[in-house]
Amino acid sequence: MTLSSSIPTHSNPESRRYFLRTYGCQMNERDSEAVACLLEAQGLLPAASEEEADVLLYNTCSVRDQAERKVLGKLGLLKKLAQRKPGLVIAVFGCMAQRLGQELAAAFPHVQLVVGTDQIHRLPELLRAPAAAAPQRVAVDRGVDGLEFMGLHHPGRVSAYIAIMRGCDQHCTYCVVPEVRGPERSRPPADIVAETARLATDGTREVFLLGQNVTAYGLAEARRQPGYDRNASPFGDLLRAVAAVPGIARVRFTSPHPRHMNAAFVAAVAETPQICDSFHIPMQSGADRILELMHRGYTAAEYLDRIAALRQARPAATFSTDIIVGFPGETEAEFALTRAAMDTAGFDHAFIFRYSPRPGTRAAAMTDDVPDDVKMARLKLLLDDLKKRAERHNRAYVGRSVEVLVEGVSARNAERWCGRTSCNKVGVFTPPPGCQPGTLLTLRISRTTAQTLFGVAESAGSP
Ligand code: SAH
Ligand code: SF4
Ligand code: F3S
C-alpha cells in the first residue's frame, strides 16, 4: 500500500457532506453563503460534487419562467440519485420554495425539505429532524425572527456581499419578488456597520451592499417614527457609515430604485470617495406608457435626470441597468424609445430580459402579446448596441492608467491575474513580484475588448 492511498481523503470521514447550488440573484448568493456557514457550524463539510454529498441544497429563483424551469429540470434528474442513495437528503429553499411550497413537495416526493425565504435560518434544525417522523416538510411561514444568520461570512474574501434588507414593497406589475421575498425589512445600521468591521478585520477591502431596492433602505421603519423627514436618506447615511469603517477601500451597492434617489442620497455619493464609480440602476423601459404600466413610478426623462445628477456628483461614473423587452403591448415605437434612452444614458453594461409572465402578478392579467421571436430580435438589437458602446468606451482606456483592486488569478488564464476598476471593469495583467489579492494596483492599459482591459502593472501595489 502506498503512503498516499492510506491518507483519508476526508479530514473527518464521519462528517456529513453538503452540496449547495444557487440560482438567481446576488441576494441568493449571499443567503447561500450564510447557509453554508450555518451548516459548517453544525459540523457539515462542503462536498466537491452532488455525487459525494449526503445533503443536497438548492437555493432557487422564481423571477422568470426559465429560472424555475432550470430548477424543475434539476429536481427531476435527482430522482435517480435519490433512489441509488437511500440516506440522501434533498432540500429546496429560497424564492421558488416560497412560491410553490406544497406543490413542489407533491411533484418531487424525493425532496424532503421545502424551505421558504423567511425560514432559511431554520435549515440546520430542519435537517436534523428525523426523516421517519415526516418524510417531507414544507416551511414557508412569513415574518419570523432569526435574520441574524444574514451576518455570517466565510472570512478572507477581498470583496464581500452584505445584505442590508430583505423583501420589496414596490410591486412592479411584472415582478414576483414582493410575493416571494415579502415586505421590505431593513437591518439596523449598527448591525451592518459591525458586520463591515468584522469583514475588514478579516481582510475584506470591498463591500457590496445588497437589497431589492437599496435606496428604500430604512424608509419603511423611518415612516413609522414621529417627525419623519422625507428629505433624509437612511441609505445615504448608511453608505457614509460603512465607508468610514477602517480598512474598507471600496463600497458598491445594488439595486437602487430611481424613485428613492433623492438629493441626500446623491450628496452621500458625492461626498464619499470610497463609493465606486459604477452604478447599476434598473431602467426597465424608455417608454413612459410602458413604465406606467409597469408601475415603476418615474418617466424616462426623470430616470435620465437621476443619472445626470450622479454624473455631476461623479464625473467618472459609469452606468449599467436592467431592461425588459416585450412587456405586454410594447410597440416598435416604444421599443425604439428604450433603445434611444439606453444610448442617452450611455450604459456600458445591461441585463436584458424577455418579458416572462409570472403567475399572480398584475401584468399576468395583461395579454402577453409580443411574440417570442420579436422579443428575441429586440433583445439582440440591444445587446449589439451595448457591445459596440462598451468597445468604444473601453478603447478610450488605451494608454491610460487605472487602479484595480487585485482579486487573484484570472479564471481564463492561470498566468494572469485580474482585478476590478472602480468603474467595475475587469483589468487583466501579469502579476508583479509579491502581488497580493486585496491590494490596489495601477495598470497602464495596452489593449481592450468589450469586456476586459489588458494592462501592465505600474506600481507595486499599496495595501
Ligand atoms: N429589485 C431589482 C431587480 C430585481 S429582479 C430592481 O428592481 O432594481 C432583476 C430584474 O429581473 C429586474 O430588474 C427586471 O429587469 C427583471 N425581471 C423581473 N421580473 C421579470 C419578468 N417577469 N420578466 C422578465 N424580466 C423580469
Ligand atoms: Fe421587483 Fe420592482 Fe421590487 Fe425590483 S423594485 S424587486 S423589479 S417589484
Ligand atoms: Fe430570483 Fe428571488 Fe432573486 S426571485 S432574482 S432569487 S429575489
Please outline the helices and strands.
Blueprint: H1 3-6, E1 17-22, H2 26-41, E2 45-46, E3 55-60, H3 65-84, E4 89-94, H4 95-100, H5 102-107, E5 113-115, H6 123-128, E6 137-139, E7 159-163, E8 165-166, H7 177-181, E9 185-186, H8 189-201, E10 206-210, H9 219-223, H10 234-243, E11 250-254, H11 263-271, E12 278-280, H12 288-294, H13 300-313, E13 318-325, H14 332-345, E14 349-354, H15 372-395, E15 401-409, E16 417-421, E17 426-429, E18 440-448, E19 452-457
Parallel strand pairs: 1-2, 1-3, 3-4, 4-5, 5-6, 7-10, 10-11, 12-13, 13-14, 17-19
Antiparallel strand pairs: 8-9, 15-16, 15-18, 16-17, 18-19
Helix pairs in contact: 10-11
Bound molecules: S-adenosyl-L-homocysteine, iron/sulfur cluster and FE3-S4 cluster.
Radius of gyration, CA atoms, in whole angstroms: 23 Å
- CATH topology of the largest domain, by name, is Rossmann fold
CATH architecture of the largest domain: 3-Layer(aba) Sandwich
Distance between the termini: 48 Å
Number of domains: 4
- Strand percent estimate: 15-25%
Task: Quickly count the helices.
Answer: 15
Shape: globular
User: How many β-strand runs?
Assistant: 19
Q: Unreliable runs, pLDDT <50, ≥5 residues?
A: 1-11
The largest sheet, given as strand count, sense and whether it forms a barrel, is: 6 strands, parallel
